[in-house]
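ERR on first pass: missing label on line 2. Operator R.T. fixed the label and resubmitted. Corrected input:
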Amino acid sequence: MSRRDATAALTLPVGKRDHIQGPAGAVVTLVEYGDYECPHCGRAYPIVKEIQKRMGRRLRFVYRNFPLRESHPHAQQAAEAAEAAGTQGQFWEMHDRLFERQFALDGEYLIEYAGDLGLDVARFRKELVGGVYEPRVREDFRSGVTSGVNGTPTFFINGVRHDDSWELDPLLAALEEAAVAMR
Amino acid sequence: MADTNPVAAGPLPPGSAAPDFTLQNAPDHTVSLHDYRGQPVILAFYPADWSPVCGDQMALYNEVLSEFEGYGAKLLGISVDGVWCHGAFADDRKLHFPLLADFEPKGAVARRYGVYRDDDGFSERALFVIDGEGTIRWSYVSPIGVNPGADGILRALGAVAGERAPV
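pass 2 clean. output:
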């Protein structure tokens, strides 16, 4: 009987390819694998915001895509839309918009959000229709699978999967504990 | 199918011959392990259809199917549910791999792989990776409430293919 290591760990280290909020030298790094159409991720979104507010510059937050395409028909395209916005320097603005408007992720809404954010809409549309960011989103997804992501959202704290609750108090406690361990 | 093999005392370990079986996956269709000789097979025993959404194990495997297929591997889900139940579940979740009904005699295949739970009548949440020659190369039993993910399967398929699992 072979058993896996008890704790799953990130196989793809945080790096230049990632979307990152917070300083590179932050004592704690929180990575989320998420899906813009997943209701649980929608509920985790304000929790992460609150944690960022409380931890300030001690925290670095990274978001990676893990769209469950069969369960959530809009998730893949929404992920690609955030990447397309990222190319125009507005990844986080689109990320926030998508989680705040989870109920409206059809293609025409994505175009509308790009306009709201002041993006080059023609380019955005062309890249979305062309599936330009499909491989990038797939790369995120594969890195999640090999890291032991088994649903969404899945969080990693300093590279180790967080298997406890991601409600505000337990997640914050785990991050603070990781911060102490790094001292 | 008849329960001809002895009941295994615990999950069959790597190196064991994978017991052959024939089970229904639809009212008019059966699947046998030996159908897949020459290619790796992933047997995913799970307790029951209709477990919670989003984090659901079968939904995850549905998404990862192309990665499994990259190794030429065939995924078979197995539970003690009957074919009609499997059909409704597979339709609802848009699953693109067979769900086998270990239904009559109940749990016979799970017993032969050593992953039947006599206390509650479900199978364990157990994974077996079987190579093209029919030898079990990796097995894993997850705590019943924990989705084991796909990383262990991919590593095992990578080992079977004699290469590192892709990242």
